């Protein structure tokens, strides 16, 4: 089965395009969880966050930031979610990296991060040990383009 996001990028499936760059495309999700629910995807097929290059991820995020700013102005929403899922256990439904950008209102019913209440804080010893484990396996920043000028 063909990737629906690749089909949208190629113009073979319809989409309500919001914005695009040379490397990323933003369009309205066909299933509007909230009005203004936008998906931002790389134009190249990339399955998930584990396969995307840092440079391409930066392009997708930069377009996501532009979309977020437009959504805030369009909907006068007091909040916003950026949501990105990987693999079936993470809730990824389309195996093409995508960033959900969703304007939010209090009690809109869309998402509760801790449906059973926030967990108790972990101890600093536990957190420091976990951070050390993660740091040991953190990839180096090979292939990351130099940052663009920041105002």
UniProtKB/TrEMBL annotation:
UniProt cross-references to Pfam families, sorted A to Z: HIT
Motif, Histidine triad motif: chain positions:
96-100
Instruction: Enumerate the InterPro entries for this protein.
Output: HINT, Histidine_triad_HIT, HIT-like, HIT-like_sf
Report the residue ranges that make up the HIT domain in this protein: 4-111
Identify this protein by name. Answer: Histidine triad (HIT) family protein
Which species expresses this protein natively? Answer: Dyella japonica
Lineage, broadest ranks: Bacteria, Pseudomonadati, Pseudomonadota, Gammaproteobacteria, Lysobacterales
């Amino acid at each position: 089965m063909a990737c629906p996001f690749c089909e949208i990028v190629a113009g073979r499936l319809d989409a309500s395009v919001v914005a695009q760059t040379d490397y990323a495309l933003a369009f309205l999700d066909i299933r509007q969880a909230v009005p203004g629910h936008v998906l931002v995807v790389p134009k190249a097929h990339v399955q998930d966050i584990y396969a995307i290059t840092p440079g391409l991820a930066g392009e997708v995020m930069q377009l996501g930031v532009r979309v977020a700013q437009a959504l805030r102005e369009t909907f006068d929403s007091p909040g916003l979610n950026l949501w990105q899922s990987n693999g079936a256990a993470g809730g990824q439904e389309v195996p093409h990296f995508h960033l959900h950008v969703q304007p939010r209102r209090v009690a809109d019913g869309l998402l509760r991060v801790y449906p059973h209440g926030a967990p108790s804080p972990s101890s600093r010893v536990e957190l420091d040990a976990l951070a050390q484990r993660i740091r040991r396996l953190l990839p180096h920043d090979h292939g990351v383009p130099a940052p663009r000028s920041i105002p």
